[in-house]
């Protein structure tokens, strides 16, 4: 698999209750479904690879949006400092949450490929956002790093544990509670010699994206 294809592959929670009285109000709070918070932002990723000829860097960036229904779109254009670029270098992922459809769009080849939607272990594909309680449970085995402001948004950081090695951590991820625990910044290593950094920048919290991003483009060929 080419490095570019690997990068593309790499590229991140109920029923409303009504009642009266303190007990009913408490139950309503526990069962209220969190709402999706829309946003418009830019995603920037940097891949650093130590190779025989020294350090190679690949940069991936593009628009990243989500609407109030929870559907999201992320386009990525890749460039490299020293490594020849092959394969798909201008792609986008589109997740239609309402219809539970997931697509890979290749702008160079003008193709659309339907992808398999992740399972329940991947909450970003869930019907509803995770509640704070569910998120705490989801990250219960990880190390809490505290809070900080990243890209103008308050985030909570975690060192993500390695399920195969006790006491070892695979990555550092900072989540924004105000954006349904969207990962704003992440740092990790792959195979020991490759470092990956992802950061959501220029975040406009609460802004609805242009609807065109959440529709399949016309004139593209559907492939299997």
Taking pLDDT < 50 over at least 5 consecutive residues as the criterion, the unreliable ranges are 1-30
- Domain count, please report it: 1
How many DSSP-defined strands? 12
With strands numbered from the N-terminus, the spatial order across the biggest sheet is 7-8-9-10-11-1-2-3-4-5-6-12
- What is the fold named in CATH at topology level? outer membrane lipoprotein receptor (LolB), chain A
CATH C-level label? Mainly Beta
Largest sheet: 12 strands, mixed
Determine the structural class based on helices, strands and strand pairing. mainly beta
Computed CA radius of gyration, to the nearest angstrom: 19 Å
Roughly how many Å apart are the termini? 18 Å
Spell the H/E element sequence: HHEEEEEEHEEEEEE
CATH architecture: Clam
Shape category = globular
Helix content, binned percent? 10-25%
For the residues shown, what is the average pLDDT? 82
Tally of helical runs: 3
The proportion of strand residues reads over 45%
